[in-house]
Amino acid sequence: MTQAIAATHVGELLRGWRQRRHLSQLDLASRAGVSTRHLSYVETGRSQPTSAMILRLCRHLDVPLREQNRMLLAGGFAPAHPEHQLSDPPMAEANAALEAILQAHLPYPALVVDRHWELVAANDAAFALLDGIDADLLEPPVNVIRLSVHPRGLAPRIANLDEWRGALAARLRREYDVTADPALGELADEVAGDLDIVPASAALVVPLQLRAGDAVLSFISTTTVFGTPREVTLSELAIEAFYPADEATRKALNGV
């Protein structure tokens, strides 16, 4: 990792993010309050930016915290944003918040995923939907995207599989555009596969329709993230909460 970072100077990384955000040098310079000439010198390596300048430009480019640290390392500076394991003591309050949200969402399914959609935690309702899936597919790390489209995972139970796959692929591509994380681009291509374009339905959102015996449970989902994270791991976590999309699903989950 250190060798890869050293091979790319900070200016090249900044230019890549500026182009990804579809900004001209003039656009970014104006937003960041620097001269266009200075920004040009930084991007070409003729001028070495300070750590404060790197962070200022990153802020205006909406660069993820992990990539901000990478740019600081490329510029010869220490990372500005800490990174911990969720089990580390400084993360205790964040863990408690995640657990509280998962439990409060019962009897509806909810789960926590990381930046690559690997399962971090889930409530009992979410695990109940996985009942009967091959045990080897549930061995950590579990990628919930792959699990949902795997022929031995949830795929045979999803009544609108092509529509769901198309929605997942589109979302992953949007996340790749925002983060530049190649793993997300690869995952999007994997999910899309040779899927034809699925005609849009009249529904306001794409539901997840799961077969459960003779019934079909229909869910819509929301995504929750930490609002003002300063830590890398927290900035990359998301809570996926599922809600009934129809009255039949609501009654089934509430035991009515």
UniProtKB/TrEMBL annotation:
SUPFAM superfamilies: lambda repressor-like DNA-binding domains. The lineage of its organism: Bacteria, Bacillati, Actinomycetota, Actinomycetes, Propionibacteriales. InterPro entries: Cro/C1-type_HTH (IPR001387), Lambda_DNA-bd_dom_sf (IPR010982), MLTR_LBD (IPR041413). This is Helix-turn-helix transcriptional regulator. It comes from the Bacteria. Residues 14-68 form the HTH cro/C1-type domain. It comes from Nocardioides antri. One of its GO terms (molecular function) is DNA binding.
